[in-house]
Amino acid sequence: MFRSGVSAMAVAAVAAAGVATSPTAAQARQPEGIRVAGGWSVVAGVGHFVYDEPGTVGHRIWFGVQAVAAAGGSTYGQFRYRHELPDGTVVGQGRADVTCLEVTGNVAVFTAIVPEGQGAVRNHGYYVKVIDGGRGPDQIVDAQAQNGTEPPPTECLDPETDLPAGVPPRPRYPVLVGGYVVHRG
Fold first, then answer.
1. What pLDDT score was predicted for residue 8?
2. Which UniProt keywords apply (predicted)?
3. Which of 13, 98, 132, 176 has the least CB density, counted as fewest CB within 10 Å?
């Protein structure tokens, strides 16, 4: 089943780039010194944003990603997520494997699939769009597939435009702490 929102009972998200608690501002800073050879695309960073949708108002989300895609289409990377309720209670956290990355200008769209057996949610995938704001704030859009009878799609799906029929468009959220680097070489 494809879910566009995050329910407090079912799922979760944050990037804690390897830490079990919310990253500090120092941990969430953008990576420095990324060098990309021609023909490669990269998205990297950790960011925090806050949902304001019905049922999830004030939920704090952390997403961390480090992924590279070669010109031929092979992609490698890791995605970390953490979802906290407004009171700080952790609803869910974990990691996923990045299966697809597409970069156009300052925009990265990627898919990350949670390995089966991690957590209680089956067939769990994230579909994320990161807009690198340069000197301004970055923005993020996310959607999830979870608890379906089939594994979720592994190709890149833009959560603003490529969702299945009947799934409402996803909003853009400003990244409040941290940020991302998007680069195409």
1. 22
2. Signal
3. 176
Whether 11 has a pLDDT exceeding 90, the answer reads no
Domain ranges of the chain: 2-184
The pTM for the full model equals: 0.79
DSSP string computed for the chain: -EESS--TTT------TT-SSPPPTTTTSPP------TT-EEEEEEEEEE--STTTTT-EEEEEEEEEE-TTS-EEEEEEEEEE-TTS-EEEEEEEEEEEEEEETTEEEEEEEPPTTSSS-SS-EEEEEEE--TTS--EEEEEEE-S-SSPPP-S---TTT-PPTTPPPPPPEE--EEEEEEEE-
The encoded tokens of residue 14 equal 């944050």
Question: Region 115-130: what's the mean pLDDT?
Answer: 88
